[in-house]
User: Which sequence fits this backbone?
């Protein structure tokens, strides 16, 4: 049996399983909270879900986000007043030439918005980001631990 498609449909990467995604999203949020982080991936008006991973190293936190086909100039990274890292942008729709007929496409397009509440130990002054092979990697260094201040007292 051959399926004939005449119109490109944009279901997004999770297709028709959005309710399952809501459950998954809550589990991910709970996991992030256990590390002192939080994430918000569902924002009204955004229709592209940028998958992410967050992990901790001895000296920093790493947030990786899959952004295949997205130009770095189409991505915005900022810290808001609530010490939350905000990554947003837009994935353009694939270009179809006039003489081409699309029979099937699972490519997604649209805007995305991710928020990650940073822990108190994050050094927000020295965050670095790089984009390579469709992965945006944000490195958030940890603050140096304060050394106990020693005050020498002379005995007279």
Assistant:
């Amino acid at each position: 049996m051959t399926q004939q498609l005449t119109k490109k449909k944009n279901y997004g990467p999770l297709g028709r399983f959005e309710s399952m995604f809501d459950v998954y999203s809550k589990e991910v949020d709970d996991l992030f909270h256990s590390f002192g982080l939080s994430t918000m991936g569902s924002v009204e008006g955004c229709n592209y879900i940028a998958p992410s991973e967050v992990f901790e190293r001895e000296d920093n936190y790493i947030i990786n986000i899959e952004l295949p086909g997205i130009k770095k100039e189409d991505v915005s990274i900022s810290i808001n007043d609530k010490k939350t890292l905000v990554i947003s942008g837009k994935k353009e729709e694939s270009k179809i030439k006039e003489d081409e007929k699309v029979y099937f496409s699972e490519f997604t397009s649209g805007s995305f918005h991710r928020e990650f509440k940073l822990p108190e130990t994050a050094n927000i002054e020295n965050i670095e980001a790089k984009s390579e092979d469709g992965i945006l990697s944000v490195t958030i260094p940890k603050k140096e631990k304060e050394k106990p201040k020693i005050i020498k007292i002379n005995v007279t």
